[in-house]
Specification:
The protein is α+β, with helices and mostly antiparallel strands. It is 50% helix and 8% strand. Pfam families: PWWP (PF00855).
Length: 421
């Protein structure tokens, strides 16, 4: 019969590469099957005694403290022995469990750490900075390989998990904004929840049901310049995950299923970088490359539209910009396509005029606006050559992003040299 555990219970907890350590269960997460109602999975949030660190572990990585005391208490590691001594005080009820955070802080004073030997340090769990580097490396690898496989395909349980994480992050932001200190919520505790986010596969339906993206973004904005390096590094990590999730759901919104493989170097960002600095927030990465950051033109002179083709367009009726819009050539500059090969030439002209008008209002020079307009419209038409409902849907989504695109952030995005494969 499998052993059961309860909240606030004393246990031994095991992390790979480290000895069994006295810990206290702070929370238990249970996942139920929607059809049967049976519990299919348990995860245990444990706080290590004598160390300012926590972890999320399966039931196979914890065991009863009293029953296994003789097995795991025999150690030459003086810091483990110190933690066991403190754990015994908790176990006998001499020290209240609520004071664990304060006890750990008292143990981990600078004077205490100065006496530590290198061999002892190697035998203990990593500090937060090392853990952050490890999780960031794992995130970079997942991003570069597009390998975000959720460990739980149950939408309901995933949503509950995300909303729980969102509540923790939002609560931390609230306390920080009111200059209130909560000893039970530290950077070490937050690290656990960011680690949980790394295990979740983002989907449009999942993220529409919660505000986790907003919470992670606010966390980045609040702590990216914080004096605490742990919070600052967590903010950078959250921002990197935010960028990936945002781009991933954009691809799903556009209905494109092929994988995105992004070079790791794209995710090297400065403290003041933001998702808004990208050229387009509603397009998939391949489309950003094609529609907003076109490839360099060949040196050979390109064929320009004939004057008689331009003359066929209606005459202007309004402002100077609108007048120039009517002179836009509506033929693709990537081939010999003519209006005869376009399913709906009138709709195409209307789309081109709408796009170029917005670009010119956003301070693009006429030549550049024409160039981008033709490329964007051509890519829209590739998605729906019949130019029916799908073409109109993509066009409406594109217009929202084009309104946010001005010459300054376009040049900035070009300077970043996005190498999207």
């Amino acid at each position: 019969m499998r052993k059961t555990f309860a909240k606030d219970q004393m246990v031994w907890a095991k992390i790979r590469g480290y000895p069994w350590w006295p810990s206290i269960i702070s929370e238990i997460e249970e996942v139920e099957d929607e059809d049967t109602g049976k519990i299919t999975q348990r995860q245990f949030f444990v706080n290590f005694i004598g160390e300012n660190s926590s972890s999320i572990l399966p039931i196979t990585s914890i065991c009863d403290y009293k029953e296994n005391y003789d097995i795991y208490s025999s150690s030459k590691n003086k810091y483990l022995l110190k933690s066991i001594e403190v754990a015994n005080a908790f176990f006998r009820g001499k020290t209240p469990i609520e004071s664990l955070s304060k006890v750990n802080s008292d143990i981990n004073q600078p004077a205490f750490h100065r006496k530590r030997k290198d061999s002892a340090i190697k035998a203990e769990p990593n500090d937060l900075s090392t853990e952050l580097k490890s999780i960031e490396k794992s995130l970079d690898l997942k991003i570069s390989e597009n390998n975000f496989d959720s460990k739980d395909d149950n939408l309901s349980s995933l949503l509950n998990k995300i909303m729980k994480i969102e509540k923790v992050i939002s609560g931390f932001l609230y306390l920080n904004s009111h200059a209130t200190k909560n000893e039970s919520m530290t950077a070490q505790n937050l690290y656990i929840y960011f680690q949980m986010l790394l295990e979740i596969e983002p989907t449009l339906s999942l993220l529409k049901s919660c505000d986790i993206l907003k919470s992670v973004k606010l966390f980045k904005e609040e702590f990216i310049d914080n004096s605490d390096p742990s919070l600052r590094n967590l903010a950078k990590l959250g921002h990197k995950l935010y960028l990936y999730w945002k781009r991933k759901i954009i691809g799903e919104r556009l209905g494109i299923s092929e994988k995105i493989k992004v070079p790791r170097k794209e995710y090297k960002f400065s403290d003041n970088s933001s998702f808004e600095s990208l050229p387009n927030k509603e397009m998939k990465k391949e489309e950003i490359k094609e529609a907003i950051v076109p490839a360099p033109k060949p040196k050979a002179e390109e064929k320009q539209p004939a004057p008689e083709e331009i003359a066929q367009l209606p005459q202007p009726k309004s402002t100077k910009i609108e007048q120039e819009v009517y002179d836009v050539p509506v033929l693709s500059n990537h081939g010999s396509s003519t209006d005869d090969s376009v399913a709906n030439p009138d709709l195409r002209k209307l789309a081109c005029r709408k796009i170029i008008k917005i670009l010119m209002q956003n301070r693009f020079e006429r030549n550049k606006a024409e160039e981008l307009t033709l490329i964007i419209e051509n890519n829209l038409r590739k998605k729906d050559p019949s130019m029916k409902s799908q073409y109109r849907r993509f066009f409406k989504m594109m217009i929202k992003d084009i309104r946010n695109l001005n010459r300054e952030n376009y040049d900035k995005s070009n300077n970043q040299s996005l190498d999207i494969q």
